Amino acid sequence: MDPLNPLAPPSEGPEAIHKVPATPPVIAPGHTFGTVTDKISSIVLTRKTPLGWWLGFGLASMFTFLLMMSLTYLVVKGIGIWGNNIPVGWAFDITNFVWWIGIGHAGTLISAILLLLKQTWRTSINRFAEAMTLFAVACAGIFPLFHTGRPWLAYWLIPYPNTMNVWPQFRSPLIWDVFAVSTYATVSALFWFVGLIPDLATLRDRSQSRAGRVIYGMLAMGWRGSSHHWHRYETAYLLLAGLATPLVVSVHTVVSFDFAISILPGWHTTIFPPYFVAGAIYSGFAMVLTLAIPIRAVYGLEDFITMRHIQNMAKVMLVTGLIVAYGYGVEAFMAWYSADKFESFVPLNRFTGPYWPFYWGLLACNIVLVQSLWIRRVRTNVVVLFIIALIVNVGMWLERFIIIVTSLHRDFAPSSWGMFNATFWDWSTYFGTIGLFLALLFLFLRFLPMISIAEMRAILPEARLDDDIRVI
Amino acid sequence: MVINETADVAIPELAGVQRRAFAVGAVAALVSAIGLFVNVDQFLQSYLMAFMWCLGVTLGCLALGMVHQLSGGAWGVVLRRPIGAAARVLPVMTALFLPIVVGARHLYIWTHADVVAADEALQHKQLYLNTPFWIVRAILYFAVWNALSYVLNRWSAEQDRTADPRIARKMQLVSAGGLVAYGVTITFASFDWLMSLEPRWYSTIYGVLVMGGQGLSALAFLIVTIVWLSRRAPLDRIIVASHFHDVGNLMLAFVMLWAYFSFSQYLIIWAGNLPAEIAWYQHRLQTGWRAVGVALVLFHFAVPFVLLLSRVIKRTPDLLVKVALGVLFVRLIDLFWLIAPEFHMQGLAISWLDVALPIALAAVWLGCFVRQLRGRAILPVHDPQFDEALGRIIERGAPPRTRTSEP
To answer: Which residue, A427, A421, A382, is CA-closest to A405?
Structure first.
């Protein structure tokens, strides 16, 4: 690799002779400030909305209406329309909550941790990964909120001095969740918006329509690109990255406490916090790949989201998938080692109990299949990767379902065992949130730059200062 | 060029350090040997702690080396030779494990047939916790670790000699599989050697906790090493503030990881308050051992955490090395906390062997480490990332750093 410009494509030196596979660049060669700006902003500023966008947005909106209908019916009728009941008091609602929250984590990891680790390859995927985080958190929040049954009283969860003299139970992890998730949503939104400001100004300057100039102009908050602006912007962005970093770990740790703090076999185990975090990042990267692969193909962004990004994300998926597999393994071993009959029953029930197809399916999706990512040819084949990523999304949903439902449905006394059966409204609410997520994503793709123009310009060779400055 | 010479030639002081380390090790070992006749049980308890301390640095270095093969980064190029030298102490560590095998009856209560016969849970666990299988597993762990260390170090030497770029790729492949193997083996090794001291107790995060501790021990040790090296030619012109900054950040990350794992384990067990699990904390937190627990919270987490947030400390080798030495010491205290209370449930008890044996083993270990370090060039000049990481610094010839100056 050229020492003076590590971002340049590797030269055809001795490496090529020895057939060492070359690393693809983070941005295809030949781009300048102008071409990058034109390419990304034209997707937003074009007057004609592509037909495919209307079709996709229309379909996603239909599911969003399904969500609204389901939630309206739920408020009218009560949460009895869902299949959960004693002993399975948590089922689809919390499964979906954890699934969505987990998906959000890739965005925060990419935007905050990879920024602090100076990983330049994050640049072209961070914007839409952050957007994905926000939309995923929005979908996640719906489930616990409506599971309270009276969402209009949800503010009781916030500790404030009130005439009823009612305080939340601070020892309950459910209340920690309220703080963790709301902090997460706030910081993610701020981070995303602050990152958008220079690009919003670019759109304001380039917009052909009056409405565009006014709206983007207001959102750009008077950005003129002076060095003062840039200096403060960079400082604010780094500080926000520092604030967001603990959130990558804390949110899913608190989510894992929702289960681990109890004494239910299958829930109460000490590996849960790191194992949940790894699972969250695993599912998050699977979702980023699920979205990035079609988006780059449809919008012709292969120059910006290169095979380098795709391969790196595949590697992150492999690593986190292995950590998740480690979690399953240790849990199963310890269930036996504990010599506790209720603990030992958990894996037995998962492997052979009534939900066995789900458990075997989850092992196939999350552990077996992902091992194919060891092979370079799989990591470089976008079609295969897209399919794997989709399957991992399914697998991670199954994982949460298994953890929640199989632990609850057969706990201690066989007399209180029971089964969970999903109703139409369980499914409609779940698919409804997928519709909401995609609808928001379509709006984002149409109205905001999906790749950070400012940051992409900064990684071009044109933008590199005298390298000596960076050594020290 | 001076960096192509072996460290022995380039840094003549190393021979003296090795000599002194072995001398201290020999004296401390002789003194400790008295303990063998006075109190065998205590000797083995302290020995296990000292052994796990040194093993933590060795395996932590092996694992960090493999991580660097996959992740890249300038920090690893500078650290690669100390990492390799530490991993090459593994055969010695393997031999030093023998006293634990011989003395297993004094350490592990599940080796006593009468105790097992009286306890239903231990009978259930006998399938796993029995001496022959325990020994077979230990052989397997050491075989895996030694094989990884041997292969990676041999290729690294070959890379030095031939500059063949294909070797880097081979090392990456072995490192990827090696990290998986390390994760699995150290998990079960930690169950076998530490968790089974209290055979009724179990915690699924235990392996991860021990892994995090080993990574932290290794980083602290590596920081001490490169600070020492950076004060002498030829590395005084090569290791710059940003290298210290990077490894300082890594150490901070591991301090936080360790705290995160420990706190998670504590919170979950405390909240559950189940008889099988809480016992482990009861005889640690409701006796004189509580002081050690509080000390760990303060000095294994709070103090290094706050200090390592400072950019100045991370970039000033003289300050960073103090934090690293402190971390190395609290790593020993953490192992003390994991091991000693099992044998002194009534309250805090420190033996002179808890001091003598760590000194003996650490000095012997250090002597072996320096001996290994002397055998090779101090920088991996044919590492594929060498030019990117250090090329410009060497070309320009950074000024030799004076003690506290900030470039």
So the answer is: A421
